[in-house]
Amino acid sequence: MKMVTAVIKPFKLDEVREALSQVGVQGITVTEVKGFGRQKGHTELYRGAEYVVDFLPKVKVEVVVKDADVERCIEAIVKAAKTGKIGDGKIFVTPVEQVVRIRTGETDESAV
Hints:
Layout: E1 2-8, H1 13-22, E2 29-35, E3 42-46, E4 49-53, E5 56-65, H2 70-81, E6 89-95
C-alpha cells in the first residue's frame, strides 16, 4: 500500500475530491496547511503598510491506496488540481507498512 499526499491550492479541493471518488478512492484526509515553494510568498498592503506573506494557504490531501491504484490516483489529482500556474502543488508517494481499522480490528488492505 502507498500513501499519496497532495499539497494543492485550496479552491481545487472539491475538484480533486470528485476526481478521486471517480477512480474509486473511498476515504481521504484533508488538512489546511501553509507553506511555500518556488512561489516564495508575496507582498500585500494592509492599512497602508506593506508586508510579506511568506506562507501561502494550501490544502493537504492524503489517501491510502493499493499499489495497483497509485498511478490512477496520481493522474486524477494532477488532472483536477492543475491550473498551469506556479503554486499548483506537489504529490508525494510513500510506502505504508501497516493499517488497522480501530472499530473492527481489520488490517492492511481490508482496513483501507
